[in-house]
Amino acid sequence: MKPQQNILPDDDGSRRIIMLSLGAFVMFFLLLSRLWYLQVIDSDNLLDQSESNRLRFVPVAAPRGAILDRNGKVLVSNTPSFSVSVIPQDVKNKELLIDDLARYLNLNRKEIEEKWTKGQGRAKYYPLVVASGISRDQMEFLEENRLALPGVNIEMKPVRAYSNGQLGAHLLGYLAEINEEELGSERYKEYNAGDYTGKSGIEKSWESFLHGTDGGRQIEVDARGRFLRTVEDSGSSVGNTVMLTIDLEMQKVAERALGERAGAAVAMDVNTGEILAFASSPDFDPALFTGRMPPEKWKEYLEDPRHPLENKALKGMYPPGSTFKIVTALAGLEAGLIDPHTAIDCPGYYKFGNSTFKCWDKKGHGHVELRKALRESCDVYFYKLAERLGVDRIADCAKRFGLGAPLGIGLDSEKGGVIPSQEWKLKRFGKKWYQGETLSVGIGQGYVLTTPVQLASMIATVANEGIVYQPHLVRRIVDSEGKSLKEFPPQVSRRTGIKPENYRLVKDGLFAVVNEPHGTGGMARLAEVKVAGKTGSSQVVKLRDSKGEVPYQFRDHALFVGFAPYDKPEVAVAVIVEHGEHGGSAAAPIAGRLLRAYFEGKGVIKKPVARPDKQEQEDSADPEAAGDVTE
What we know:
By secondary structure, the protein is an alpha+beta fold. The chain is built from 22 helices and 23 strands. Strands 2, 3, 4, 5, 10, 18 and 19 form a seven-stranded mixed sheet that branches. A five-stranded antiparallel sheet has the order 12-11-23-22-21. The chain has a three-stranded antiparallel sheet with strand order 1-8-9.
């Protein structure tokens, strides 16, 4: 009998089948789990990645708001400009592309690399600006070679257009590409690399109003990154318009009058604090900062001894010279140390201890009372008055006008100047005050430093007899639809508390400065309107008597402050000409031209039909105005 065969698998075979089945089940389970994860859990993320491969976001820069003068005349607007951007995701060979762009656009390779590095950390499909302000020829060349330059796009961006060229460059400021430090700050959190922002002047200080809201377009592209269609378009919003207090015609006259000379001129409304002209010379071209600054031009700016990049009206700190005698005179009157008839004898010098303090007029002024002291700017009168007052009482009077601290005009980096006192010197140098130093302070020398805008505010306060208005440059902010968003009415920052009768005594002396024989400010006189003012010359370095010509950099600065009309003041001016030597001959004529422009604008003085540049100075002042002194 045959043995019965075992039809069941042996133990080893059974185990193999079970293990294979279990492995197949696990693999199938993992596959199903992964499929479920991709289709259910991670579906949104995968959809975004898929869309990003065919959809691109192209930012659309918002046009900045315009800047207008007080009468609505355009100072700064916008004009189209073309820039080159790259989408890193579409670039296969970064180094080759940078080489090509540097060659085609005639750019420094290192500059492109730096811009590329700055854009790292953002989405690879986000455009990275590598060149701005390209020419039309460059744009056409890139368009023709687009297939050979994967990832390269040409964008249109609005850039600043300066309607009057370099006029008001220091006031208006300039734009430049945002830097890494700014990108990391809270103030610029909504900005992107490649954006432009204000770097100085109105453009910087009022950036939040001028900068619009950027928009963008969602576009569809093919596998090679070429544009197919626009999927969604979110428009940009233009920035707000900033209307200044500046009068364009007065600004033109101020800058033309300064010419190539280094200096500043400020005109202010006596009864509101509005700045009507704000000139600093020499100027610069703000348009150069929005593109690639030519290295030779940058070098020229930096090496120019006149410092064209410095806003002298705001940041230039100068000894006020004899214009400060106004403060010393008011301090003496308030203290009761002098009256209109208090007299001294001026032999041309004043002996103090072992030192001799000279008067600017070496022959001396003889018998001098307050009115003559102001009219002829007698130094000896104010040496003696300063000695009696002491530095602290002079400092107290100066600070009543806001001198020695920034006025808050509405621009960044405003300087405050220096008004010395005994306490100030002890803190600053750790040394006590010497009485001889007070004599220099009394005539606006020594440690005293002021800015042109401070001097304009000071003389405006003298004109209105004690009200210190907040100087300001902006009248209103207007949105794109013409709706006024914010108004800036006159604000009183302080009152000096000086008696009106003391102001009138000083103002009488200032009238004599411009309108009487031997007055030092005759070149500011106008035939049609009564002008009052004060000349000044501030020493740059102390020089011994020299028979030869003094080098330019060592010559005195020339100053003039004034207001008009004398009987009912409306406008005040302050002018400084660096190394101009004499306020009466260098600064006063500029002030006269500014005042004439103001009253021509109001129709008080009839405008000439035509006035050649070479005759402007002669036409601006009374031809018989020049006295025989030019302090």
